[in-house]
Amino acid sequence: MTHLSILNVWRVQSVYRCLFFICLGRVYCASLATSPRTMSVVVLALCVTISALLYYLSVRKFSYWRNKNVPHLKPLPLLGNYGEYILMKKYVGHVSQEMCRKFSKEPYFGAFYGTEPTLVIQDPEIIKLVFTKDFYYFHSREIAKYTPNEVTTQNLFFTQGDKWKVVRQNLTPLFTSAKMKNMFYLVGKCGHTLEKLLDEETAMSGTVEAKSLMIKYTMDCIGSCVFGIETGAMEITTEKNVFVTMGEIIFNTSKFHGYKLVCRAIWPKIFYALGFKYYSTEIDIFFKSLLMSVFEKRNFKPTARHDFVDLVLALKQKNHIIGDSLNSKSMDNKKIEMKVTDDLLVSQCIVFFAAGFETSASTLSCALYELAKNQEAQRRAQEEVDEYLRRRNNKLVYECVTELPYIEACLNETMRLYPVLPVITREVVEDYTFPSGLQVDKGVRVHLPVYHLHRRPEYFPEPDSFHPERLYGDARMTSNPTHSSRSARDRGNVSVYASPKCRRP
Ligand code: HEM
């Protein structure tokens, strides 16, 4: 069988593909019954054929950007332009930054994320289109279609379409400022526990490991604000805290897990077709029983806390949730109804726990790291807090979020330097034409190079240095010389991404 005819066979429907492999298997078995020499020839032919097939599959989309006349880099088979990241040799923020620098004058350019055509957009105005005006076309992510395969992925962070919109509309009431204000005393309590823990740890050793300390603190905050429980993450015991263990399982940092993550992101169809799962089922079992035990403690009735568990309980009792369709083109305002299953609710709990503690802990620990290196910024931050406490009679109240502008600038500057998602990924859900005339097809990936944009000297002079003053007071408006007449937020520039935007618009 020639090369070409094999490739043609590959293109037909999957049933023919199966028949093809059965035939190959037969040929192989038949060869076993013949002489060793014939067998080696058949095995060799098979290897060559399979390699040729894999090679073809790994490069077949590589003409995509050339055909569209979009500037792009030469990709490597299978790895595309992200080889160093896929092989876990480099941080994805740096890989994308290096590519962007090669196309610094282009509003966007083409790349290949593994084998997949990916448009990298660097122009803030086009990024605004993707995130706001034309969001419908870009609301999906690479694994969104496959979320029913795992309980843990059935949440806001991974889903798409009407399911995402309806769940989001039903969870939004949790985030009103009145709710935040009511919960604030819980954060204050966790703060006092943190102070005690810090005293104990510094009494034992002169060195404190900031990241794990912040993980314990943010876990405790999420535990009490979201689940209404005390996680005990900040208690000093010989046994490892079960929430800390869960956090480590969810954010498994082994290389093997890293490869799984990348393979799932690039080839989700193959990943799930082969029966793989990314998350351990331990996670959903743990959170399911946690949720049930909190429900039981509350006698399956919402309480006066009106927290996340109450909201989830109310949704469970309703059985169905209703919301709007994401597709604004459907003008009939049709309401979408969705069945509420335990898996759906458990999955939302997992994302609130995971997205809540990890992001905040890494931001806080990076802020502490930068403040430790920048004594003057540290002095100013401390002075602002001392002055605030004097004014408020030593009491921390919700309004502190607007009354500590220098602390806020320090956190925003930290998120500029260390964005939790160095590249935000999207997938085109319907063919779309950019104002430039470039038409991208459904399924094309879109990468927004947050890390690179945050470190562009055009937007942030001396981009690698920690300089909270640039995001403080009036300086915030003029820190970007190319857009000095407009406010930082209006510019649609990267400072928008420096803030903890936890949502798709
Ligand atoms: C410093 C703190 C945080 C940072 C920097 C951060 C960052 C982000 C970013 C960049 C996204 C958007 C991802 C995308 O669109 O692809 C996101 C989404 C999300 N975050 Fe956060 N986050 C933080 C804290 C939290 C907390 C405390 C919670 C919950 C208690 C949370 C829950 C979520 C959820 C549920 C989503 C998905 C929203 C959706 O797609 O509708 N995050 N976060």
- Sheet with most strands: 4 strands, mixed
DSSP, total strands: 8
Global morphology: globular
Give the CATH class of the largest domain.
Answer: Mainly Alpha
Rounded to the nearest angstrom, the radius of gyration is 26 Å
Oligomer: single chain
Total helical segments: 23
Molecular structure report:
The chain is an alpha+beta fold and 505 residues long. It is built from 23 helices and 8 strands. Residues 1-13 and 481-505 have low confidence and may be disordered. Helix 10 (177-204) packs antiparallel against helix 11. The chain has a 4-stranded mixed beta sheet with strand order 1-2-8-5. Residues 156-157, 168, 351-352, 355-356, 359-360, 363, 415, 420-421, 424, 500-504 line the site of protoporphyrin IX containing FE.
Using brief descriptors, characterize the structure shown:
single chain; alpha+beta; Cytochrome p450; two-stranded antiparallel ribbon; 8 strands; 7% strand; disordered N terminus; binds protoporphyrin IX containing FE; oxidoreductase activity, acting on paired donors, with incorporation or reduction of molecular oxygen, reduced flavin or flavoprotein as one donor, and incorporation of one atom of oxygen; membrane
Question: How would you summarize this macromolecular structure in one to three sentences?
Answer:
With 505 residues, this protein is of the alpha+beta class. It has four domains: 3-59, no CATH class; 72-148 and 406-505, Cytochrome P450 (Cytochrome p450, Orthogonal Bundle), CATH 1.10.630.10; 154-373, Orthogonal Bundle (Cytochrome p450), CATH 1.10.630; 375-403.
